[in-house]
Amino acid sequence: MLTRRIFLTTTLAATSAAALPAWAASFEITRTPAEWKKLLTPAQFAVLRLEATEKPFSNSLKGESSPLLKEARKGTYDCAGCALPAYSSDTKYDSGTGWPSFYDAIPDAVRTKEDNTLFSKRTEVHCRRCGGHFGHIFSDGPKPTGKRHCLNGLALTFTPA
Ligand SMILES: [Zn+2]
Known about the structure:
Blueprint: H1 2-18, H2 33-39, H3 42-50, E1 60-61, E2 64-65, E3 75-79, E4 85-88, E5 92-93, E6 101-102, E7 110-115, E8 122-127, E9 133-138, E10 148-151, E11 156-160
Antiparallel strand pairs: 1-2, 3-4, 3-11, 5-6, 6-10, 7-8, 8-9, 9-10
Bound molecules: zinc ion.
Zinc ion (ZN) is lined by residues 79, 81-82, 84, 127, 129-130, 132.
């Protein structure tokens, strides 16, 4: 009986966890879409909350644009939703793709999930604290990680060091 009880408990736990996508399970900062709309610009809302992608090079969307592709100062790139420092200028590089690119995030600042849209398997990356969507991670980055964090400039704000 003991074995059976453990089995049932495990099954129930697995079922309830599956009701929510793992990445949306819990964030330190949670707001309703209406609350986010008040805090964010329309382009920030589209990227952070709806996973829209800004155009490359102009880094524009909905009449807004981000200057962060060409930003070259020392500093941090913070989540535009909750201001968590997410990326450092130390890991930024020019990938040639037209989006701000980094080979790594600040430790414990981001989380990822598998993204199977656009007919391919990609790794989506978002803010650890509020779940705001930043972009995707690809495996064609430079050393030492070999990763390319391909981000929307509109999802970030820059704080000079
Ligand atoms: Zn955030």
